[in-house]
Amino acid sequence: MPALTTPPPTESERPTERLGRSPGDAELRRAWWSLALFPVSFLAAFMIGEGLFSWLDDDLGDPAIWVIVVAGVPALAVFALPALLTYRLGRRAIRLGRADGMTPAIIAGSLAAGFVGVNVVAFAITVVFG
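-> structure tokens emitted (130 positions)
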């Protein structure tokens, strides 16, 4: 009695191709999902920045500018990491045939640039006006 199973996919058939999706679609979905890493990176950046600040600050008055910079730069870099991942996945989606692959990367870059910009402006105002 013959079995009623489908044959295994050949080397050229990928599961996404059998469903009518291109590999670029999968990369685009991953790029959109990578935006969900921003809340995690925000918490990590907050912990890193506050941890370094409390470790370096002497609690004797206003902190030195170098303490703020040394604590802030790694925190801002950690916050921007999902934007780099989203950019990479978006570029891969474009290479695999999705022209709209940079849309999530633009959103991620805008979010990261806005967060860094707000923090740099706040730092500059603090330095200038004390």
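The mean pLDDT is 88.
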